[in-house]
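Researcher: Structure for this, please.
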Amino acid sequence: MNLHAYVAAKTVFPVVVSAALLTLTACGGQQAEDAPDSLVVEQGSEALSEPVRVPDRVPLVVGGTDVMHGRYPFMAAILDSNAGNPSNGQFCGGSLIASRWILTAAHCVEDSRARDVSVLLGQRDLQGQGGEEIRVSRIISHPDYQSNGYPDLALLELQSASAAAPISLASRGNNEPVAGENAVVTGWGQISENGPATNELREARVPVVAHSVCNRAYGGQIVEDAMVCAGGKTDSCYGDSGGPLFISRQDKFVQAGVVSFGERCGLEKVPGVYARVSSYYDWIAAYADVNTSVGNPPPVDNPPPVDNPPPVASTDFLYKGKLRGWGAYANEPRDPETITLEAGQLQATLKVPRNRRFILFLDRFDPATGEWEEVAAVNSRRGEAVLDHYATAGEYGFTVMSLSRGGRYELKAVLSQ
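Model: Predicted structure, token format:
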């Protein structure tokens, strides 16, 4: 599957593509540390000699795979309701964000009438049976789109409520995407520039790209507050504009972007561009009853009285190290490779040089799959990154990654029970 968008005439880009799915590629060697041209992560000289926890965090675009039925219930196919069947009528993607509301790209529907549009939910195969097909009653594009060409966002109000589970949305300062972390993109787009579209919903993991890198790739045309970039060195094509770019937060999916545009099919080192959801959360929430909360701690059946709280038990961890260069990373702890945590509130504070950029990841080992999964991530700001996470009992580890010239770091973690 590949992602492609027709961009409004007011934008400076040609017919374009977002990040995509079918080629399995890894980027090459390390670039200049302050201006990497490709998405590279190399091990720092003082990091682990054989990194064991984060091979999938090395920025690559993983080949697209078919989605299991029911995995993404919020995924919507936007249809021409006059086409006769979903396979012929699908022209964009979207996401269910509330029972009667779909979020998609404004360029998908700028020339459409609501009576000619419907959405299909709960169906991964456009030629299959089942799912919900619901007519659209109203199309609302963001008011700034016609004058600016961004934000590339639109809301579709449905004639009746969907029974599917909606996706949560990122908002300012809450569950925003972090450069270097993996996101997921899904859709029914064409599998090559001149090839057919797929009827099977497909997904791929794409790394979130720093604004400075993406802006350089597009000649200074990326508006940071309105856009987020992901992917790079991919083969991309027509079909999945409007679909969601989403990240994992505390075992739940959170939508961070909407497929918007990119360069021509197959250009290397050029990430796809997505409308940034968090910057326009208030506009979306003015119409739809949306949700931002993820991963709240489970309720306590019999909480103690407020005036007589129980003593709090805490466990402290302290790690120190040094990273050299852009993309260097280290796992903490190093020996043993994991820390065993009981359930509780975990707060980790990473101290780094004030003028350097670092990311702190929290990973959890899944014994069912034998793999590590990322459960939380945070960017450093002014020399510090603070990560708060309600941890269930299990095996955990931290990853510290440099997005600048590196430097020394100190990581302190406290688990309160």
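Researcher: Any notable elements?
Model: The first strand starts at residue 3 and ends at 5. The domain at 70-158 is CATH 2.40.10.10 (Thrombin, subunit H).
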